[in-house]
Amino acid sequence: GQVFKLEDYRPNDYLIPQTNLTFRLSPEATVVTATLTVQRRDGVAAAAPLVLDGDGLTLKRVKIDGKKAKPADLLVTPDQLTILKPPARRFQLLIETELAPAGNEALMGLYRSSNVYCTQCEAEGFRRITYFLDRPDILSVYTVRIEALREEAPLLLSNGNPGDKGDMGDGWHYAVWHDPFPKPSYLFALVAGNLGEVADSFVTMSGRKVELGIYVERGKEKLAGYAMDALKRSMRWDEEAFGREYDLDVFNIVAVSDFNMGAMENKGLNIFNDKYVLADEETATDADFANIEAIIAHEYFHNWTGNRITCRDWFQLCLKEGLTVFRDHEFSADQRSRAVKRIAEVRTLRAHQFPEDQGPLAHPVRPRRYREINNFYTATVYEKGSEVVRMIRTILGADAFRGGMDLYFERHDGEAATIEDFIKVFEDASGRDLSQFALWYHQAGTPNLTVSSTHNAAAQEFTLEIEQSVPPTPSESRKRLMHIPLAFGLIGAGGKPVAFSSVEGASVENGVIHLRKRRHMVRFSGVTERPAVSLNRGFSAPVTLSVEQRADDQFFLARHDSDAFSRWQAFNTLLTDALIAAFREFLGGKQPVFATRLTELAGSIAGDETLEPAYRALALSLPGDADIAREIGKNIDPDAIHAGRQALALAIATANAEAFSGLYHRLANEAAFSPDAASAGRRALRNTLLDYLSLLPGGAALAAKHFQSATNMTDRAAALAVLAHRHHASPEANKALAAFEKTYSSDPLVMDKWFQIQASVPGPQTVETVRALTRHPAFSMANPNRVRSLIGTFSSANQTGFHRADGDGYRFFAQTVLEVEKRNPQVAARLATALRSWRSLEPGRQAKAREALLSIANAENLSADLRDIVERTLA
Ligand code: B3K
Ligand code: ZN
Fold first, then answer.
1. Does the residue 861 lie in any domain?
2. What span, in angstroms and rounded, lies between the C-alpha atoms of 54 and 74?
3. Is the CB of residue 383 below 6 angstroms from any atom belonging to ligand 1?
4. Residue 266: in which H helix or E strand, if any?
5. Domain presence at residue 266
6. Is residue 873 located within the same domain as residue 762?
7. β-strands 461-469, 519-525: how paired?
8. Three-state DSSP class for 639?
9. Total domains, the chain
10. Which CATH number covers residue 752?
11. Residue 761 belongs to domain spanning
């Protein structure tokens, strides 16, 4: 396939200042009439042909300035329309295409989801609707007329503000929408169908009233209340935190059940995967509520970071995504607990971005090459992209950062911008030089810091020796030195900060060491007692640390670090070290033994009433099998890792049986359900304790009771997972699974949880369960949520099941990926990334994983999406 390169960017010869679209909707034969105002860019030669993108289109007719185009003046293929000699002056180009939305299973362009017409255009779906300059730097003002049978589609929505509407006779009706803000084609959207509405309104900071609508499957209106509340909070927050006001008269959200990702920020008409809209206590978990809040916010925040200021080309994707993730993280931190949110973010980054950055699919936050852009909506672009923005704020301070953001909106509103533009506003606002820092956008790989320390009591000097290195990544063997802002603290007896009089060897500002060279000897003077060092506080930089740290210091920090993130980190490091040691014991045929002070510390964290329950729950949830594998790095045997993890869980449970049980019972159900963070935190702690207690005698009965007495989905699903995972195939587990299935068989989103829980049962037997579940009536290979819940969970969240030693997990996986691909290449390509870390497996599994990857690579008619992932993974 073609390789697209950043350095090849040049603006198109033509502009399309206005786009008028008419849709005459029908499932098998929708007619789209596009009338484009086309204008040659200044300075372009008159003879330049106009080359429009298409993707599998059927062209009906073309008119130029009202006259039928002559066949000799056109070049037509399903994937391109060339106007060989366009008029020299501004002209009207009419293009009529015919589509069959009902047969569109790739869910890109115009398609049908449960009889609702909807669209997905990012990144390159608009070209499946009409021929166009389908690239983000072509900004156009859209007017859209939708015609449909009123009975089939009483609701007709598009971007912008509503205009004229009315009857057309014969049961047809129409509606016109006009969006005054020029936008790229990827932000176009249309929805038509018969949906229920939840209406509300919002008064903006300047006093304008905005009508808000959330549209859902009829009968589910009462499940949209939390999403509406999250939307209004997001609108207010963006005014307060960034001074950003909403700009249209209406803001609509539509929930659909067939969607390739989480949601889409189309201007004024966000389209959501219904999983991220619909929720009540009976059907959604606390994690679902938190996701809904974050994703509603994320898509809303795109209105400024993405829509008003968009991307020049797809290489700049992080310009909107990394920045908008940063904004939604900050929003959630303000709505909930900042410390807990930060820990959760870092866990996610390590679980998803680190393996990407450390494997064959590594790429810079701003890539320079791609073959299929859909494969670059990655954890690196999103999550690492957000961390890079966070580092800019750390370096500049909150005020100069806000000044830079204000300048960004002022300078680039209405433009398609680049990462260089973004960095420049912060340089201009702060007077700082960010050229070395900018490498975070351009260089792939997770930097590592090696740190050691010495205290010279006589000289009252404390020295940190820090060395940075960035490991090689595909096509980048030599790395340049980065600017790494490393937040730190020196901590003395009782957890008090240790004073120092001066520092040499690096610039240190506001508790942050600025590393710019390969090696720094950072010397603190006037340090009378030997401090414990708390490093990378708040996770100020997305790096790995190799620290020579005494275990005593680590225990001390886990009890006393005043930075909540670092305190969590210290305990998590102790757990990880113990788990790696246990893995080695199992490999050597021995039983691991765990230090009493570690299991005791777990008990004291659990019972520490000065800590938020949500924080305690996070601290007590052991690093997962995949986290441990990532830390070990090579020669992975998932069975030995899992055995070590089980042993530590049992040791902690045994050592703290009474305390855990007492606390578990004290946290018993609250009278009324509330999805707020504090209540969710108490449920999380109680469910974490249940997981431990389930390992002790009577554990299955306790979990069964928890399941039966649950009054909300958080507790019910947690108990079901404990039964299925810790007491696999027990009568209690079987009974609970059957009861859950019976109660929720007609609720697909809840059945997804049932699929997920079973797909993540550890052990070699699970591949058989998953195979059988693909034939369950509630499962469908055509629905992305079902596929991700069953196949995605199995392949990316079940180390012992998927990596079964005989390779059967991989064989099943390869077959399934190819089956999904026939319908939906994008979802198949995403699934296929589950094998990206195959080279870190032990040799036997590695060979079998490679065979499975080759069997995909050698399949006939492979889509560009899947070919790109598999070939890079094998390279
Ligand atoms: N911008 C969309 C993602 C589109 C993915 C296209 N393959 C959702 C988001 O990040 O807000
Ligand atoms: Zn986004």
1. yes
2. 14
3. no
4. none
5. yes
6. yes
7. antiparallel
8. helix
9. 4
10. 1.25.50.10
11. 745-875
Q: Which of 301, 325, 358 is the last residue of a domain?
A: 301
**Helix (H) / strand (E) containing 38:** strand 30-40
ipTM: 0.99
Burial label for 633, CB within 10 Å (0-12, 13-18, 19+), is exposed
Do the Cβ atoms of 586 and 592 come closer than 8 Å?
yes
For residue 377, being part of any structural domain is answered with: yes
Question: Do 510 and 401 fall within a single domain?
Answer: no
CA-nearest residue for atom 1, ligand 1, is: 264
Q: What is the CATH number of the domain that holds 398?
A: 1.10.390.10
Among 398, 425, 442, identify where a domain stops.
442
The answer to whether residues 290 and 333 belong to one domain is: no
Cβ-contact 440, 388 below 8 angstroms: yes
Which ligand 1 atom minimizes the distance to the CA of 122?
A: 6
Distance 533 CA to ligand 1 centre (A): 40
578-624 per-position pLDDT tens digit = 999 999 999 999 999 999 999 999 999 999 999 999 999 999 999 99
Residues assigned a catalytic role:
299
Distance 213 CA to ligand 2 centre (A): 21
CB-ligand 1 contact for 265 (6 Å cutoff): yes
The torsion defined by the Cα of 562, 610, 346 and 795, in degrees rounded to 10, comes to 150
Residue nearest to atom 7 of ligand 1 (CA): 374
Q: What is the pLDDT of residues 528-572, one digit of tens each?
A: 999 999 999 999 999 999 998 889 999 999 999 999 999 999 999
In a domain, 231, yes or no: yes
Report which residue type is found at 595.
A
Pocket of ligand 1 contains residue 563 by CB under 6 Å: no
Which residue type sits at 124? E
CA distances from 145 to 22, 108, 165, 191, 344 (A): 5, 21, 9, 12, 44
Please indicate, yes or no, whether residues 409 and 371 belong to a single structural domain of this protein. yes
Query: What residue owns the CA closest to ligand 1's atom 3?
Result: 264
Are the C-beta atoms of 342 and 563 separated by less than 8 Å?
Answer: no
